[in-house]
Amino acid sequence: MMMASRRGGAKLAGSMMLVSRSFSKPISRGVIAKEAVTAKAVGFHGDVLRKNIGEFWVRGSVFGVRHGSTVSFGEKDQQKTEMKQTPPVADGGDKEEKKEIASYWGVPPKRVTKEDGTEWKWNCFRPWETYSADLSIDLKKHHLPATFLDKIAFWTVKALRLPTDLFFQRRYGCRAMMLETVAAVPGMVGGMLLHCKSLRRFEQSGGWIKTLLDEAENERMHLMTFMEVAKPKWYERALVITVQGVFLNAYFIGYIISPKFAHRMVGYLEEEAIHSYTEFLKELDKGNIENVPAPSIAIDYWRLPPTATLRDVVLVVRADEAHHRDVNHFASDIHYQGRELKEAPAPIGYH
Fold it and tell me: Which family does it belong to (predicted)?
């Protein structure tokens, strides 16, 4: 009986040595140290098997007791420690590398550079969309209101100016910001309605869709520029939301009823913008408003020199408003003649 027990124990020890050789020394040591069990746990007796039976109990997956892992306990502890010590990368951190957006659809982001080879940093517009403003435009042109609709448009704009003067007074930076949030609406509304009309009638627009949308984009760039100069307060932002919501819906209805009235009203609105920017320039020249360096977005958009100041920005913005005045009065005249906009070539690129 003793001989049979010794022979069985020897066979079992040999099989355990074969199993233990398939694992590294750190594994064996980690298992013995952490999960050592006695030989009685598997029904054997004797001191010979008591030392190594723990390893067989944990790692002996051939008997279906427990599946072994290829990583030792020591290595697992080390991995957990490394994971705890690795600090998470904060979103938007200064040291975080900017990763390019990858897409399956084959639309890779293009790297655009300036003429001097430096990287172009604006995604809202590209170098081929920039221009030099025409400062030689006549700023004193005015359309005399002759018809009934012209008078309504003229006095509507005058009425809108009164609360603006009371609220902003001589804070022309915030005044310009408020003005541009309204001035960018008509071009978008008119371009959208002409776009839908072109689709309904299966006809071209004579380029007026692009002209009006370009006007809206140009006015929006005015806003992006003055946002860098005048930091609006929370109540000014709330006022912008309110005024824009009311004006957008009112202008939408007005354009559907009478496009010639709508364009005439915008023409008068641009005349008021010219007056406001002229007063802005006077305050800059008097020293009441600090002539700070021009924002970098304005320098790139209007191709201004690197030494440009806020006064230079106001000059080019005022010139843009004068061009928008001409375009909208011209569009209104086309409608007054009983013709459609598509019959006259649109002044594309007329800033």
Answer: Belongs to the alternative oxidase family.
End-to-end CA distance of the chain: 109
242-264 pLDDT, tens digit each:
888 899 999 999 999 999 999 99
Q: Provide CB contacts within 8 A for 110, sequence distance 6+.
A: none
| Alpha-carbon distances of 3 from 7, 9, 15, rounded to whole Å | 6, 10, 18
- Residue 310 amino acid letter: L
Contact by Cβ (8 Å): 334, 347: no
Q: Which amino acid is at 333?
A: D
Kindly provide the b/e burial profile for residues 313-327, where b requires at least 16 CB atoms within 10 angstroms of the residue's own CB: bbbbbbbbbbbbbbb
Tokens of 320: 């843009």
Would you report the helix, strand and coil content of the chain in percent, each value rounded to 5? 65, 0, 35
> Would you put residue 80 in left (φ > 0), alpha (ψ -120 to 50) or beta?
alpha
* Euclidean distance between CA atoms 150 and 42, whole angstroms: 103
